[in-house]
Amino acid sequence: MRENELYTPIKIGSIELKNRIVMAPMTRCRALKNIPNELMCEYYQQRSTAGLIITEGTSPSPNGLGYARIPGIFSEKQVEAWKKITKTVHKNKGKIIVQLMHSGRISHPLNMPVGSKILAPSAVKASGQMWTDLKHFQDFETPNEMTLQDIIHAKTEFICAAENALFAHFDGVELHSANGYLLEEFLSPITNIRADNYGGSIENRCRFVLEVVKDVANAIGKDKTGIRLSPYGVASDMPHYPEIDATYDYLSKELNKLDIAYIHLVDHSAMGSPPVPLEIKKMIRENFNNAIILCGGFNNETAEEAIQSGLADLVAFGRPFIVNPDLVDRFKNNWPLCKDLNMDLFYTADEKGYTDYSFYTS
Length: 362
Prior knowledge:
alpha/beta; two-stranded antiparallel sheet; globular; eight-stranded parallel β-barrel
């Protein structure tokens, strides 16, 4: 067995990385008034030994601000605030990509600015509740079914946000088409019951996602564009459907034609969700020629195995990066990992459980 490929450099698209360890995107809800801040800057700086940081889900528009205190990248203030973060990461020779996340129906008006609206492919209400700072947990509301004009407008918002990402000196953009948010809502025949060219057949249900990917790639470069997928995921009330395999077979082949930098495939089975079948991972690997990032329940050894097997080119880590800001050094030196993860502090507003985790000392 070859050794330590996890720590070797790799180029994805035009982005040169110092290692193959990726910090996974994780919503942390510290962006007061939806604007990145100094606390977030410290958080990302602490973890910039990762070969690649993918930011928390960042809304491309006011309509996409589903959760309390998530950042956006659609205003000048937001772009200027992100510049401080990208500068800090680059100073440590890290690379950082912004994840564009339009939350779709997974939202609540109390988390959104006046004049915005909850949009989805169809008026299908999600079961469950959303946290709001004003009234705590509230039931999801029935979203507005997107008109064709809404669809066109949403695509322009993604394009503008991607261009703003380059203004903010990000190294690229990841389109969040997973976890039950807007892009994935178009893929599923359960959340997408449209009767026009954006609903019905697999080709139609994939149309919006592929158009967004193509438009963003044309705007900023396919070599700076990636996408996150979660086949068989059930987050945000996304039930399984019979055509899952066929949907992702078609989608991954079409993404390959667009020649984007990477597909980021997430498997939440380590947190109790159904696993993504190995056959699906292999199918996407076979269909897609460029980089594959795998995410979900990996440790140092299993990540190395995934890379050496050819199933992945990079591996993303989520929760281990929360509690171990120096995760790369801990892996490389066989230092023990801190496992004192306080889940009650995942989505709070201050530094506790965010920037106060310790670096390893012998």
